[in-house]
Amino acid sequence: MRAYYYDNRDGDPTLPHDSGRQVEPSVLKSMGVLHWSIPVDQEDKWQEEIDQVAREREYKNRDVIESSRSTLGENYSNAMATVWKEHMHDDEEIRYALRGGAYFDVRELPTDTWIRVHVHGGDLLVLPAGIYHRFSLDDGESVKMMRLFKDEPKWIAHYRGPETDTNPRRKEYLATFAGPEAIFVA
Protein backbone atom coordinates (compact mmCIF):
# COMPACT_ATOMS: atom_id res chain seq x y z
CA MET A 1 0.00 0.00 0.00
CA ARG A 2 1.14 3.49 -0.78
CA ALA A 3 -0.69 6.66 0.29
CA TYR A 4 -0.21 10.18 -1.05
CA TYR A 5 -2.13 13.37 -1.70
CA TYR A 6 -4.16 13.34 -4.91
CA ASP A 7 -3.04 15.98 -7.44
CA ASN A 8 -6.63 17.17 -8.17
CA ARG A 9 -6.00 17.35 -11.91
CA ASP A 10 -8.81 16.37 -14.23
CA GLY A 11 -8.33 13.18 -16.17
CA ASP A 12 -8.58 9.43 -16.13
CA PRO A 13 -9.01 8.22 -12.52
CA THR A 14 -7.04 5.05 -13.31
CA LEU A 15 -3.87 7.17 -13.64
CA PRO A 16 -1.75 7.76 -10.51
CA HIS A 17 -2.61 11.47 -9.97
CA ASP A 18 0.41 11.61 -7.66
CA SER A 19 1.11 15.04 -6.15
CA GLY A 20 4.50 13.82 -4.93
CA ARG A 21 3.45 14.39 -1.30
CA GLN A 22 3.41 11.15 0.69
CA VAL A 23 0.94 10.44 3.50
CA GLU A 24 2.21 8.61 6.56
CA PRO A 25 0.26 5.57 7.81
CA SER A 26 -0.29 7.41 11.11
CA VAL A 27 -2.37 10.05 9.27
CA LEU A 28 -4.62 7.35 7.82
CA LYS A 29 -4.90 5.63 11.19
CA SER A 30 -5.94 8.92 12.81
CA MET A 31 -8.85 8.97 10.32
CA GLY A 32 -9.85 5.38 11.12
CA VAL A 33 -8.35 3.94 7.91
CA LEU A 34 -6.59 0.67 8.77
CA HIS A 35 -4.17 -1.44 6.73
CA TRP A 36 -2.56 -4.85 6.98
CA SER A 37 -0.01 -6.33 4.61
CA ILE A 38 -0.81 -10.04 4.19
CA PRO A 39 1.17 -11.57 1.30
CA VAL A 40 -0.95 -13.65 -1.07
CA ASP A 41 1.84 -15.95 -2.26
CA GLN A 42 1.13 -18.60 0.42
CA GLU A 43 -2.60 -19.28 0.37
CA ASP A 44 -2.75 -21.24 3.64
CA LYS A 45 -0.92 -18.47 5.49
CA TRP A 46 -2.98 -15.56 4.14
CA GLN A 47 -6.23 -17.46 4.71
CA GLU A 48 -5.26 -17.91 8.38
CA GLU A 49 -4.37 -14.23 8.76
CA ILE A 50 -7.60 -13.07 7.09
CA ASP A 51 -9.55 -15.46 9.35
CA GLN A 52 -7.79 -13.96 12.39
CA VAL A 53 -8.64 -10.38 11.36
CA ALA A 54 -12.21 -11.48 10.63
CA ARG A 55 -12.55 -12.99 14.11
CA GLU A 56 -11.06 -9.94 15.83
CA ARG A 57 -13.33 -7.50 13.94
CA GLU A 58 -16.39 -9.81 13.96
CA TYR A 59 -16.67 -10.20 10.18
CA LYS A 60 -18.91 -13.19 9.56
CA ASN A 61 -19.22 -13.24 5.77
CA ARG A 62 -17.07 -12.72 2.70
CA ASP A 63 -17.10 -12.97 -1.05
CA VAL A 64 -14.66 -12.41 -3.91
CA ILE A 65 -15.23 -10.00 -6.77
CA GLU A 66 -13.27 -9.22 -9.91
CA SER A 67 -13.48 -5.84 -11.56
CA SER A 68 -12.07 -5.31 -15.04
CA ARG A 69 -13.23 -4.47 -18.54
CA SER A 70 -13.53 -8.18 -19.33
CA THR A 71 -15.49 -9.16 -16.18
CA LEU A 72 -17.83 -6.14 -16.26
CA GLY A 73 -18.26 -6.03 -20.03
CA GLU A 74 -20.57 -3.32 -21.29
CA ASN A 75 -21.36 -2.35 -17.66
CA TYR A 76 -17.73 -1.32 -17.08
CA SER A 77 -18.13 2.45 -17.61
CA ASN A 78 -21.31 2.72 -15.54
CA ALA A 79 -19.92 0.56 -12.72
CA MET A 80 -16.72 2.60 -12.53
CA ALA A 81 -18.61 5.92 -12.64
CA THR A 82 -20.83 4.76 -9.76
CA VAL A 83 -17.93 3.91 -7.41
CA TRP A 84 -15.92 6.97 -8.49
CA LYS A 85 -18.63 9.34 -7.26
CA GLU A 86 -17.84 10.53 -3.71
CA HIS A 87 -19.89 8.60 -1.15
CA MET A 88 -19.98 6.96 2.27
CA HIS A 89 -21.49 3.77 3.70
CA ASP A 90 -23.28 2.93 6.94
CA ASP A 91 -20.87 0.01 7.45
CA GLU A 92 -17.12 -0.42 7.24
CA GLU A 93 -15.75 -1.15 3.80
CA ILE A 94 -13.22 -3.99 4.05
CA ARG A 95 -11.22 -5.18 1.05
CA TYR A 96 -8.36 -7.66 0.69
CA ALA A 97 -6.62 -7.36 -2.68
CA LEU A 98 -5.83 -10.79 -4.11
CA ARG A 99 -4.54 -9.65 -7.51
CA GLY A 100 -4.19 -6.44 -9.50
CA GLY A 101 -4.39 -2.92 -8.15
CA ALA A 102 -6.86 -0.20 -7.29
CA TYR A 103 -7.17 3.21 -5.67
CA PHE A 104 -9.27 4.17 -2.69
CA ASP A 105 -9.42 7.95 -2.33
CA VAL A 106 -10.43 9.16 1.14
CA ARG A 107 -11.12 12.65 2.48
CA GLU A 108 -8.56 13.83 5.01
CA LEU A 109 -9.79 15.34 8.26
CA PRO A 110 -10.06 18.25 8.84
CA THR A 111 -8.79 19.58 5.47
CA ASP A 112 -11.20 17.63 3.22
CA THR A 113 -8.24 17.02 0.88
CA TRP A 114 -8.17 13.81 -1.15
CA ILE A 115 -5.69 11.16 -0.05
CA ARG A 116 -5.08 8.41 -2.60
CA VAL A 117 -4.42 4.91 -1.23
CA HIS A 118 -3.00 2.53 -3.83
CA VAL A 119 -3.56 -1.12 -2.94
CA HIS A 120 -2.10 -4.24 -4.60
CA GLY A 121 -2.26 -7.97 -4.00
CA GLY A 122 -1.72 -8.59 -0.29
CA ASP A 123 -3.18 -5.33 1.02
CA LEU A 124 -6.11 -5.46 3.44
CA LEU A 125 -7.79 -2.07 3.82
CA VAL A 126 -10.56 -1.02 6.20
CA LEU A 127 -12.45 2.22 5.62
CA PRO A 128 -14.60 3.23 8.60
CA ALA A 129 -18.34 3.76 8.28
CA GLY A 130 -19.11 7.40 7.52
CA ILE A 131 -15.85 8.31 5.74
CA TYR A 132 -16.24 10.00 2.37
CA HIS A 133 -14.38 8.07 -0.28
CA ARG A 134 -14.34 6.90 -3.90
CA PHE A 135 -12.80 4.00 -5.80
CA SER A 136 -11.04 3.43 -9.10
CA LEU A 137 -9.05 0.66 -10.70
CA ASP A 138 -5.44 1.59 -11.33
CA ASP A 139 -3.97 1.75 -14.84
CA GLY A 140 -3.88 -2.08 -15.00
CA GLU A 141 -7.71 -1.85 -15.01
CA SER A 142 -8.12 -5.13 -13.16
CA VAL A 143 -8.44 -6.14 -9.53
CA LYS A 144 -9.62 -9.24 -7.69
CA MET A 145 -10.69 -8.54 -4.11
CA MET A 146 -12.18 -10.31 -1.15
CA ARG A 147 -14.90 -8.30 0.57
CA LEU A 148 -15.52 -8.98 4.25
CA PHE A 149 -18.58 -7.87 6.18
CA LYS A 150 -20.18 -8.33 9.58
CA ASP A 151 -23.60 -9.56 8.48
CA GLU A 152 -25.26 -9.30 5.12
CA PRO A 153 -23.55 -6.75 2.91
CA LYS A 154 -25.12 -3.30 2.88
CA TRP A 155 -23.37 -1.71 -0.05
CA ILE A 156 -25.67 1.28 -0.16
CA ALA A 157 -23.74 4.35 -1.23
CA HIS A 158 -24.83 7.63 0.29
CA TYR A 159 -23.54 10.24 -2.15
CA ARG A 160 -22.09 13.39 -0.65
CA GLY A 161 -24.53 16.23 -0.14
CA PRO A 162 -26.34 18.15 2.63
CA GLU A 163 -28.55 15.17 3.54
CA THR A 164 -25.62 12.77 3.77
CA ASP A 165 -23.61 15.29 5.81
CA THR A 166 -26.24 14.86 8.54
CA ASN A 167 -26.44 11.05 8.25
CA PRO A 168 -26.05 9.51 11.77
CA ARG A 169 -23.08 7.37 10.66
CA ARG A 170 -21.37 10.44 9.18
CA LYS A 171 -21.93 12.38 12.41
CA GLU A 172 -20.59 9.45 14.42
CA TYR A 173 -17.52 9.26 12.19
CA LEU A 174 -16.82 12.99 12.62
CA ALA A 175 -17.36 12.86 16.38
CA THR A 176 -14.93 9.94 16.65
CA PHE A 177 -12.18 11.16 14.34
CA ALA A 178 -12.57 14.96 14.06
CA GLY A 179 -14.01 15.79 17.48
CA PRO A 180 -17.53 16.85 18.57
CA GLU A 181 -17.16 20.36 17.15
CA ALA A 182 -17.01 18.90 13.61
CA ILE A 183 -20.33 17.05 13.77
CA PHE A 184 -22.29 19.70 11.91
CA VAL A 185 -19.57 20.83 9.52
CA ALA A 186 -20.65 20.30 5.91
Can you summarize this structure?
This protein is of the alpha+beta class and 186 residues long.
Features:
single chain; 186 residues; alpha+beta; Jelly Rolls; 9-stranded antiparallel sheet; two-stranded antiparallel ribbon; 6 helices; 11 strands; 26% helix; globular
Question: What does the average pLDDT come to?
Answer: 93
CATH C-level: Mainly Beta
> Which stretches are low in confidence, meaning pLDDT under 50 for 5 or more residues running?
none
SSE arrangement, N to C: EEHEHEHHEEEEEEEHH
Oligomer: single chain
- Any guess at the CATH architecture? Sandwich
C-alpha geometry: globular
Q: What's the CATH H-level homologous superfamily?
A: Jelly Rolls
How far apart the termini lie comes to: 30 Å
Major sheet description:
9 strands, antiparallel
Q: Care to count the β-strands?
A: 11
Task: Work out the helicity level.
Answer: 25-40%
Q: How many H/I helices?
A: 6
Q: What share of residues are in beta strands?
A: 35-45%
Classify the secondary structure makeup into a structural class: alpha+beta
Whole-number tally of structural domains: 1
Subcellular location: Cytoplasm; Nucleus
Cofactor: Fe(2+); Ni(2+)
Family: Belongs to the acireductone dioxygenase (ARD) family.
Binding site for Ni(2+): 87, 89, 93, 133
